[in-house]
User: Which sequence fits this backbone?
């Protein structure tokens, strides 16, 4: 609070008691003026703040509506793009599956043809092999019979040699004993 100074001529005319009373009245008037000015400023500030808040709420509601509208448009756009992509993917998938099926059918035909050729070749080899096997078997049996006969004759020859050796040894023992 400011200190009030009352000019000297006014103090002399009023006197000390009246001057003090005048100062008190002026101080109270100053307090009331300040209080009234503060109240008015508060009221103006509250009105201004309420108007600003209402304005912000309106702007926020408008922004929310614009955002929701734009979000809905973007979602719709993405759904349209997704549907187009799905159709293109489905078409490409169908084309690829068809291509693989065609390749598989071709591979299956080539495999069946090669398998038939291989089986036919094996059958021919088996027939040729069977004939040649029979000829080889006959030759092997003849060789085996010849080998067995030779082995028998060798065994008989060695048996005679063994017997002759045994007879000679027994004769030698008998002559040695009777001498």
Assistant:
């Amino acid at each position: 609070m400011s200190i009030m100074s009352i000019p000297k001529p006014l103090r002399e005319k009023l006197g000390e008691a009246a001057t003090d009373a005048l100062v008190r009245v002026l101080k109270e008037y100053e307090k009331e003026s300040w209080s009234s000015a503060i109240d008015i400023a508060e009221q103006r500030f509250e009105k201004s703040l309420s108007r600003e808040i209402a304005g912000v709420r309106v702007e926020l509601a408008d922004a929310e509506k614009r955002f929701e509208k734009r979000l809905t448009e973007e979602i719709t756009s993405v759904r349209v793009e997704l549907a187009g992509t799905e159709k293109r993917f489905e078409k490409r998938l169908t084309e690829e599956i068809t291509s693989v099926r065609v390749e598989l059918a071709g591979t299956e035909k080539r495999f069946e043809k090669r398998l038939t050729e291989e089986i036919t070749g094996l059958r021919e080899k088996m027939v040729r092999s069977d004939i040649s096997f029979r000829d080889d078997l006959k030759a092997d049996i003849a060789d085996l019979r010849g080998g067995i006969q030779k082995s028998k004759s060798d065994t008989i020859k060695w048996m005679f040699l063994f017997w002759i050796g045994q007879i000679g040894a027994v004769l030698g023992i008998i002559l040695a004993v009777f001498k």
Q: What stands out?
A: The radius of gyration is 68 Å. The mean pLDDT is 87.
